[in-house]
Task: structure prediction
Amino acid sequence: MKILLATYWSIPHLGGVWNYMVQLKKKLEQLGHEVHMLGYDEDNLNIHMIGSDKKVPRDKLLPLLQAKINKDNYPEIYENKLVEYTEFQRYIFELGTAYFGLGDYDLIHTQDVISTACIDRIRPKHVPLVATLHGSVAHEIHHQLTTIHKTPNSYIARAYYDDLEQLGAGTAEKTIVANNWLRNILIDEFKVVEEQIKVLHYGFDTESFIKQMKVKTLITPPKNKKVIIYTGRLTDLKGIKYLLEALGKLKKERQDWVCWIVGSGDGESKLRVKSKVLGLDDYVQFLGKREDVPALLGKADIYVLPTLLENQPLSLIEAQIAGKATIVSEVGGLPEMVQHKVTGILTPPGDSNTLFENLNLLLSDEQLRKKLGTNAKKWGMTHWSIDQGMKSLLEVYNEVVSMRKNGDEDVSNNPIH
Result:
């Protein structure tokens, strides 16, 4: 089969969507399929195919779109800057994808609601579409409209993204989500038909990750200090400011620790300033975007995710496979991944006092810390089986191919393996 993995987000990119796409491509190619990956580039300027020189420049399409979709013809698009930006970005994505052509693909697998809505409009009738949603874009926007995108007419953007969520989640033959949290949001809030949704965890290449943990890294923990680690994007939604506030309290209680903050993002400069104001220069290291995250996790003692909204983060899966004690916010899909005080600790989001108490607890109680890490690894090695994840995904692929076929032809005679 010839399969296209597509996303509206930029690729390559720090985060779970890109890692999932890379892992999925590798496994599908091992099974004999031809797999292409499409998305915006890292600067959000071009639509490109990974691994080739094929690209469609944004600056070639934008003037044409602006001439056609102008304020006189479509004034409502220009009422909110976020809506204006997203409308043009998604039309550019749609036109760029159409330029590459979709008719030769046997199946398209999108990774977000926006790419799903775009590709559904331009795909040939015979090409089936599967969507995996790695979170709720609308819910993330709801939060951002109270912070970085807050404007007097934020309600316009909220309604726009709610409509986009409903459209993108409901147009593929099958929509895959990782947990019941997101399933229930789509059904109850966005009125997606229940039968369309499949709850299916991603699967994870544990063998490859364990090998990467053994790779040498130049970063080493200070002598006689435990390592607290955060890995992921440095954005407001990840709640890292609450981690820094908790660490400020922890410093006054004890000094036998350091914290590695691994990743990059538009919130990094503010977080660095906050760390300095809290007097954490000797305790917190911002390590930036790195390729040796598995090795860094191997040297850490406690993984923390203070996020305000989350679906099924790859970073937590990695921490579980690494056998680390974890402290994560009790939000989104995380309670379906962590059993409180059995495989980790759940902590209230945005509560730096309780986060401090939980960090202090795990630093003080070595037996509990090791027990949580051991239990997390046992659970993770079984639950995140990539072989079972791939088997379930291929069953979905076969189902949608059958649904897209004309008449009553039985696809079981030529299944996807």
Notes: The radius of gyration is 22 Å.
